[in-house]
């Protein structure tokens, strides 16, 4: 694993790949994941590149494999895991694999098509059988259920559907029978009445069972209908209406004998279709089972092959068109591995001329590579969400591992809540190899990916909870309180002490609503609590005032230390990039401005804690008043914290005032001096530059004067940088904006760290309210029914604790901790204007393939 403090040192390498070995060499590089390819054909369209035909062939194979996966999934055949990541197929086996897949696709499509046709025919025959069975009952209806006609009185006792009767009438009676979906019956009947003007007789009956639709495969309820009509024109209208409503129309038998013959033929055909359909399904399942054995490995192989050809399309040919030239970014430590991969690819292809590589100098800024593991990956993602670090600048993720969970815990400090979070994260860590967790839903997967962040946040919350002595809003007396209540009674003191001190007696205890402990009385305060806040403060009425004062001062101290540390990290950037003038003209004035004002504020807070005791607490001056007087210079003498305070404050204020013009004008004037009269010193560096493009340092130095190795070494802060134009006004404006932002930011950022106090107070008060409204009520119920009420109260308390105090409050503290790192800490030294190193690696493709396959 590389250093987490800075990104890896990169170099630009040029690969010379023989045409016959290029595929095998890139396959070996993809397995190792060492390099990032540069596109040398940016001006060439994707459809005009050399290997576009091979890419299309891979896409065709990919389409076939997606179809196979869909059919296998539809048949409920489990996909075997097989080899996790098979290598890319050799070129000599690609055509054979393509022929096999195409043949398998054609066979599957034919068998599937025949199966669907057989299934559709079977469903139609079953519908026809049900239609014949139901319509048979329609003929048995008597005429009393049908309307009578005055024109034929002699037939009033005969059925209107009797064929002999209709023949005597001489009318041409027709029938249309079939099935219609349940939801279309009313509209269908209404349309028949309006279109045929009542010259039809419609009879319905609902099927007892639901049938599958032959077209859609959906199981729905059906109605059997029989329509009798007179005349051919009416018959044509009826048939068109049936087509419009997607009715399944079947021939209606004219006689009972014909009906019986049709029924017998249908039963025979249905039995034959069942037999053929079962054999077809068995054969189809056999084909799919055989295909499922290798489909997963072939999916990975095809997409690896497609990725290789995509990379080959980014290469350029030499003048002879026999050698491919590629340019790649590669970490310097991985250059031996790159050479071995090229040798391995050349050996596998059997080429007589091996492929080789060499490094080339460049002034382009390399991509940023920071190697992480499963523990540091989550913290690096937090930093990268702000911006990928510039090449070789200090990486904040190393310090975020500690500072982020600690600042979160300051806002979330509760021993009980932190322990629950720690147990949840520990459960995820112990089961991190479980496949369901890594492939779970988005929210749970987000928790799983940040399991180590949650683990440290819970652990630090336990620590700060012990400091606050807060466990589900209640204090824990682990070491015994340092306050002694019995020492306040007058009976425990002599008469002289009783006259001199305000002590308690029986009357005081009976008539006083509140009692005050005086630490000046001997024996009352026996010393500080060994670890954290004394538990007796949980009973005090001024508990909130005491904790507010403590947490507010603690927030200011932590914030100033955090920001000062960020400014100091900027010095490491200046040293690495050989810009020492930025240390003297930027970093040192920034540190002086920060420490002379806000560092002195920390000094006053700590000095007041140490210098004043309970006896002299009433004489202690206000820190806020003393801090304001530092800038106002009051005419009257004030009682300060220590002797000579006024002189010290004047010196600090003078240093602050002097640092401001240096911060505003120092760097622009120095660069102007270099431009006008001095050459640029330092060690000549060939290759890429370490500064960002269009940075202010690039336009600060002379472009017309070349650096010589014998230059003066006293000014190593300057490097050779090509300059197009020196614009003093732009540099001055940029530095002025930066200085104003820093000076005002020191004030606003210090105030921003008060969110540590505010969220800690809100979390403690919300926890206290939840305890008072639920647990206290449940614990105060009469003992007879208290047990039965306490169980649901505890369950409700646990649910609200998890969803409100752990999830909602935890998310709020998490977001505020991110803001403190992004805005208040990282802007002191972190630019975050780099590009991430994305290697050509098959390991990145494999996880994506499995996800896509599961979706398919």
UniProtKB/TrEMBL annotation:
Coiled-coil stretches noted in the UniProt entry, renumbered to this chain: 94-128
Cellular localisation: Membrane
Entry annotated with the keyword Iron: no
Membrane topology per record: Multi-pass membrane protein
Alphabetized UniProt keyword annotations: Coiled coil, Hydrogen ion transport, Ion transport, Membrane, Transmembrane, Transmembrane helix, Transport
InterPro entries (alphabetical): V-ATPase_116kDa_su (IPR002490), V-type_ATPase_116kDa_su_euka (IPR026028)
Taxonomy, superkingdom: Eukaryota
Pfam family, any one: V_ATPase_I
Transmembrane segments: 406-430, 451-468, 554-572, 584-607, 651-674, 785-808
Function statement: Essential component of the vacuolar proton pump (V-ATPase), a multimeric enzyme that catalyzes the translocation of protons across the membranes. Required for assembly and activity of the V-ATPase.
Family indicated by similarity: Belongs to the V-ATPase 116 kDa subunit family.
Protein name per UniProt: V-type proton ATPase subunit a
Native source organism of the sequence: Mesocricetus auratus (Golden hamster)
Lineage per the UniProt record: Eukaryota, Metazoa, Chordata, Craniata, Vertebrata
